[in-house]
Design a protein that fits this description.
It is a single chain. Helices cover 34% and strands 22% of the residues. By secondary structure, it is α/β, with parallel strands linked by helices. It has seven domains: 117 residues, GIY-YIG endonuclease, CATH 3.40.1440.60; 61 residues; 81 residues, no CATH class; 184 residues, Rossmann fold; 156 residues, Rossmann fold (3-Layer(aba) Sandwich), CATH 3.40.50.300; 58 residues, no CATH class; 95 residues, Ribosomal protein S10 (Alpha-Beta Plaits, 2-Layer Sandwich), CATH 3.30.70.600. The strands form nine sheets. The chain has a seven-stranded parallel β-sheet, sandwiched between helices. The longest helix has 19 residues.
Length: 829
Amino acid sequence: MLEFTDGQYTDRKTLFVEVILPLAIAKNYTYRVPYELNNLIAIGKRVVVQFGKSKMYTAVVCAITEHPPEKYEAKYILEILDDRAVVTDRQLHFWKWLGEYYMCFAGEVMNAALPSALKLASETKVQLNKDFEYDKTALHDKEYLIVEALEIQPELTISDIAKLLSQKTVMPILKGLFEKNIVNISEEVNDRYKPRRRTFLTLNPAYQGQDNLKELFAILEKRAPKQADAVLAYIKLARQQKAISKTELVEESGAGASSINSLIEKEVFIAEEKNVSRLYFEEEDLDANFELSEQQHGAFTSIQDQFKQKDVVLLHGITSSGKTQIYIRLIEEMMAQGRQVLYLLPEIALTTHIIERLRKYFGSSIGVYHSRFNDNERVEVWQKVLNNEYKVVLGARSAVFLPFADLGLIIVDEEHETSYKQFDPAPRYNARDAAVFLANMYKGKVLLGSATPSFESYYNARTNKYGFAEMTERYGGVQMPIIEVVSIAEETKKKTIQSHFTSVLMNDIGVALANKEQVILFQNRRGYAPVLLCKICAYTPKCINCDVSLTYHKHSGKLHCHYCGYKEDTPNICPACGSTHLEYRGFGTEKIEDELSLLLPETRIARMDLDTTRSRNALQNILNDLEEKKIDILVGTQMVAKGLDFADVTVIGIINADSLLKYPDYRANERSFQLLAQVSGRAGRRGKQGKVVIQTYDPSHRVIKQVIENDYLDLYLTEMEERRSFHYPPFYRIINLDIKHKNPEILHNQAIYLGNELRKHFGADRVNGPQVPLVSRIRNYFIQSIMLKFEKDGVSINKVKAGIRDIITQFQTTQLSKGSIVQPDVDPY
């Protein structure tokens, strides 16, 4: 386009941007860039755009072009939110791969990747900007009407404004008001990230001389003794630290904020507001002088050597063999090269526990990232990683989305854990597998660590795809725990069982408590009782939204659904037959805690499960109390199995191993072994041999024997024969399709149709189902599942996924698909 400027025609470029919207749409949308923003637009910046008739979103620019879209007229972007890109080119490439591999949309990946404070979506609400003074007389008639209405009612929806003006299209008018800074299109359109501000104090140079300071004290002691105390406290703090905040001085002096304010007014103190990190931790003296044992040194050297040939190495080290110390040495090596390290852990429980140990070695150069952080904290970590301020990031699975500059190493600790897999919502990614691709993008390395590796990783190591290092002894020569299996049936017959605790377990608990040692009890179910049952008619309360029975929670006195969060009061009378004979069947962690407190009333008992760790610092407080020996017995779910390391835990009790072993899943034996071995590994970790008591109705079960003998290889070889025979991973790839609908009959027809189409395309032997899953209704949606299995050799998985997408798309164009949801899940287990 030619433009007449300064007496001559010049070429004026019209730019268009392809953006990722935070929506589950199949294609990225293209917008036009206003000419005045041409020099400011860049890939990776966030822009505010209108999508649809009345909704505004924050989108991320992923491409810039001079070609307009062919099928529609491009709207203008409304605003650029960033001075510099907040998403890097490598991240956009990573997002694209995740979307393609896990068969989801780019917008769904963006939603998972960006902290919510960076997704400034504003869909419906409009408010006046209270921080801006405006002249109503300068407004157009329709703008005036909107502003006048907002002065009466502080918030209006887009539809309210459309009714007010008697017209459908109101966004251009709102855009004008927005650009004039008069309105906010939803409060989130103002960037929600605000740095934390603190007031720091310095003593006025006029009082820093000895004589002047004495004169000041003489005056203050007579007229304002509390202010004199504040000055004294300041001098004391100034000997210990450089920066002194107003909050610290108030706490140290006990003088109160008003006294400090008076000293500021008198210009005794000079106050200055500064941004401070919410993530500040006091730096400790670094202590990296530990020595690796001979076994650790051998594993460390082997990993270094194999990294020359392989991008991924599996470290198979039994529990308490000292894997963390090897990780520390590898991190030091990578930091010396000036490269970044990502240390992934499966649970926030592990993250909070291990961070204290790692800070001892790496101080403030280590950052932490997980979902328990609030929006502002997550954005702060994001920005520090973007600026290359953090050399090491410790995080749960979402940390793979951070904007690394030069990622040299990813450590995936406890790589077998199912917590690395996101099940809902999309992208249904596995952070372990994503880490392998991510490291490859940066030409970095991946170390997978586990005492009980996933069969996929172990298979890759045995077939030479991955490198392999092994440690078979506990660090410091500590012996593996004694494992005793106790038959619940036998003890019930002999009447030696108390509540859910066998005589063997109660005796071992008593010995541990007498020796001032600690106990962990594992029960793989939270709540008080899984089932409330009428003894007369067998009625069981079920969730109104999901096809599951409700679990009784004693602390709330209510029945809870663990799938959708529905709660209802516990009935005293059976609603089916009117009987008062209702009883609780089964038991969860809450009931274990309750009954143990009756049996051992003097014992300090705590519980660690999803219910007790919901609040921000609850988890850390429990772990601190265990470390400081304020807890004698910790009762918990799978959280207690994962990597906890406490010196005085000598007895582990597994209350009911059968709930793990009898689960209808081809991975049940693998998962059972992993969980039992991991829980057992919490016992006797530092100088003391521990004891593990496994309570079960089936003491002769093969997996229990393999756990006792710590024979992972026997488990692996046995299970792999079955996997090969029945076409399961690692020999085959699995893709699940979940079809959901609120009407079970319509769903049945939809699932049959899809199943038939998939069989026509891929062959009957590769398509299993449709079938009803164990939980057949969640949040009022009925579910049917189709499982597809594909050989790893000789089949292009990309072509397979393209075929599945085509079939789903074709299905969604038919009348039959109305009201349905189809969710692909790649590598679902």
